[in-house]
UniProtKB/TrEMBL annotation:
<dbReference type="Pfam" id="PF01168">
    <property type="entry name" value="Ala_racemase_N"/>
</dbReference>
<dbReference type="InterPro" id="IPR029066">
    <property type="entry name" value="PLP-binding_barrel"/>
</dbReference>
<feature type="modified residue" description="N6-(pyridoxal phosphate)lysine">
    <location>
        <position position="36"/>
    </location>
</feature>
<comment type="function">
    <text>Pyridoxal 5'-phosphate (PLP)-binding protein, which is involved in PLP homeostasis.</text>
</comment>
<comment type="similarity">
    <text>Belongs to the pyridoxal phosphate-binding protein YggS/PROSC family.</text>
</comment>
<dbReference type="InterPro" id="IPR001608">
    <property type="entry name" value="Ala_racemase_N"/>
</dbReference>
<dbReference type="InterPro" id="IPR011078">
    <property type="entry name" value="PyrdxlP_homeostasis"/>
</dbReference>
<protein>
    <recommendedName>
        <fullName>Pyridoxal phosphate homeostasis protein</fullName>
    </recommendedName>
</protein>
<feature type="domain" description="Alanine racemase N-terminal">
    <location>
        <begin position="10"/>
        <end position="220"/>
    </location>
</feature>
<keyword id="KW-0663">Pyridoxal phosphate</keyword>
Length: 223
């Protein structure tokens, strides 16, 4: 009897299909498996299948789960995808390999200080508030040039731009806009697309898609 595809294989196949349509190399799209709220037992099968990029949105939750899993799988790359308070910058720099939520000058200062202290440079995506929704965080579009300048001045490696478009609106125009902003600023990375829209994001240039529900099922509670 043939085994059914795992959720990881299904998402990888969808990434391959969307990349082909967009005439892109599927290897240029990093799948960040968003494991927030899910316990180590839910994460383990993906690790066993060979997946190594994972995303968490809370520093404290990640501190509880990942050091143990990383002992077994040292090649794991941890991505911080949630809003970061400046007072958690040190912990974030210590634990994460990539930060997707750099969005304000005070965080540039806090992260630069933490990186200097730990002698570790963590690549950061600058999160852009493409939908003009204050509550999600993200740098206002008008402030982006200044924030990028500050980050570079502080020796923070800028990996690219990230966005979290408004829910329940067609996301394609926001993805296209982020792609254009990245191009204007000569940045490689575009962190955009979630379970419901990562195919669209890939067609519009995503280099990092952040997929939770399609891999792990629905999250138990509000996050
Ligand atoms: C939770 C989350 C995701 C994943 O969302 P799904 O719809 O479960 O794929 C992606 N990006 C961010 C910033 C998130 O907080």
């Amino acid at each position: 009897m043939e085994k059914a595809d795992t959720p990881l294989q299904q998402v990888q196949a969808t990434i391959a299909k969307a990349s082909k349509i967009a005439r892109r190399d599927p290897g240029d799209v990093t799948l960040v498996a968003v494991s927030k709220t899910h316990p180590a037992e839910a994460i383990a099968p993906l690790l066993v299948e060979g997946h190594r990029h994972f995303g968490e949105n809370r520093v404290q939750e990640a501190q509880g789960k990942w050091p143990m899993l990383r002992d077994v799988y040292p090649a794991v790359q941890l991505h911080l995808i949630g809003q970061l308070q400046s007072n958690k910058a040190e912990d974030a720099v210590a634990l994460f390999d990539v930060i997707h939520s750099l969005d304000r000058p005070s965080l540039v200062t806090a992260l630069a200080k933490a990186m200097d202290k730990q002698d570790k440079r963590v690549p950061c995506f600058v999160q852009v508030d493409v939908g003009e929704e204050d509550q999600k965080g993200g740098c206002p579009v008008a402030d982006l040039p200044k924030l990028l300048h500050l980050a570079r001045d502080a020796d923070i490696p800028v990996a690219g731009l990230m966005c979290l478009p408004p829910f329940d609106i067609e996301p394609a125009p926001f993805f296209a806009f982020l792609d254009k902003l990245a191009r204007d600023h000569e940045l490689e990375g575009r962190s955009m697309g979630m379970s419901g829209d990562y195919e669209t994001a890939i067609k519009l240039g995503a280099t990092h898609v952040r997929v939770g529900t399609a891999l792990f099922g629905r999250r138990p509670a509000l996050d």
